[in-house]
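2024-03-11 09:14:02 DEBUG pipeline.ingest accepted 1 chain
2024-03-11 09:14:02 DEBUG pipeline.ingest length=240
2024-03-11 09:14:03 DEBUG pipeline.predict start
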Amino acid sequence: MLPGCTKPHRARGLCSTHYNQQHATPEQRHRKAVVQCTWCKTECVKDAGRERRYGGLFCSLTCRDLWRKATGNNPSPSPEAIRKGAVAPWRRRTVARRKLKRAARGTQGDRTWIAGPCDRCGSPFLALTSGADPARFCSARCAKRSSRARRRARERSAEAERYSRFAIFERDGWRCHICRRQVNRTAVVPHPLAPTIDHLLPLVAGGGDTAANVATAHFLCNSIKGDRAGGFGDQLALIG
């Protein structure tokens, strides 16, 4: 046993590395064998002990592939079989062509491309979506903010429905229902003129998070109004 060696011992109290260094010469550790290629019959040098393995029967990969095609061992599918779909295509180029065709058709598996304005910020977006859950937001940030608003309504046991902030802004003509002035479409919170959604009857007062109970408001006007109801657009907004 050699001091400082932490490898597992294999024979005579030594690890594999130290055993080979002490009991075998470099010629013995790297012995070579001359074999004959199965396809072209050319002699080639292989590692001793590995010359009879499958990959060691050939002098090159070219000879191996030629032998496979000639003997039928793991042959490549014919173009006719690939075209008919009888054999699954295995070439990378064929798979790439299929992906490009699906992209040109606008589909990828059971998903399709969808484009339109974001339900929250109104920004145009393009995304892959399935029929069961169509994409509605341009980013994860907008989706998270919309989910947070619905969660607030659920925590107060208020009536909630899915609606588009962008559709509400369009319905109100991008005009604040408190001061009756236009909002800045490109501004974002905390800009004072940024468009926000204001609940006409606040959630804490029993109002619902529905399209009929929300209206467009400046961020500044909405902040000043707070949770108060009445005097800031008394009637509920009409849908349509």
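2024-03-11 09:14:41 DEBUG pipeline.report Residues 114 and 127 are 6 Å apart (CA to CA).
2024-03-11 09:14:41 DEBUG pipeline.predict end
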